[in-house]
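Record filed here:
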Amino acid sequence: MRLRKLGSSDLEVSEISLGSWLTYSGGVSRERAKACVAAAFEAGINFIDTANVYGRGAAETLLGEVLAGQDRSSYVLATKVYFPMSDTDRGLSADQIHKQIDASLERLQTDYVDLYQCHRYDQDTPLQETMGALTELVRAGKARHIGFSEWPAQQIEASLALPQTARWVSSQPQYSMLWRSPEAEVIPLCERERISQIVWSPLAQGVLTGKYLPGQPAPPDSRAANESMSGFIGRLTEDRVLQAVQRLKPVAEHAGLSMPQLALAWVLRQPNVASAIVGASRPEQVHANASASGIVLSPETLAAVDRALGDVVVR
């Protein structure tokens, strides 16, 4: 497993990281989740990403229990704040940031997180208030570094212009062969400002593994067939998208790669990407995804990917 530096921070994170969005918030059993975390450590993954809203605290609680026996310095832990935790608790006000970090630390059974991320931009809270509260967390040692997820470039620039506030080290956008929107503005801006990408859904919620076939029902053990985990898969399972993904199979075979390896190596070809977050419901999935670290795709393979996907790519 190769490591990459996370922005301007002193953190080095594994190229493949373990996420907990749909899986460890109730999608899989505690024992299965525990086995997946163990497999991640075995594979050299040192970076684990979660959020307070995943299962309304369930994912953080589970990870806190599973990680309790690990040396705290052996892994990089990230969580997030913004989405509703109750009818009255949501957003990025100073009160919420302080309240939610304390609750997250308690669930995670740790004194600090390595990375605390704003899960979305809060239109209802002054940016200065949000950045001031995040800076206080860093100074208090509750968060070593800060990041954001899915912030528009204009808001990123505005936050960077504020004086005497903690600096972002990471951005967490959706990014994959099928979803390339960050390439237009966010990645160029972050490159200039020494902010790394930690990308979510690099396998397009499993679609880029090639297991979903056009015109056929989803495999019974897949995310799309699981009621608790299929709510966001949407257009990714449209026939035109699945047909394009099937055209990637000979591309992967010609390169001597599996479909997940091809998809993960594709996002990691981007120097500004520090890590690709993958979910896993089985330990063997963790090892299969981890094997993508260090793979370099040839220009011919990259061109073949573009030809195969054609106009289904969102840019």
Observations:
- The mean pLDDT is 93.
